[in-house]
Please model this.
Amino acid sequence: MINLTNLSSCEWIALASSLAISIGQNITADEAGILSNFFSALGDNLGIISSENSNNNSNSNSNNDNNNNNK
Model:
């Protein structure tokens, strides 16, 4: 299994380009538009989840620091 955190930015670009080319070769323009919109929505939602998780982790760490300082 590939560890996604170990990929460089260039590897991410190559992966995305390769997938787009592979998928795009056998679909219509309408289908490509639908998939484009879907993957944009998927990316936006993953960004929201990531931001929320980051915010929750930050709050949790801050609470832990405050609890440790009060001991």
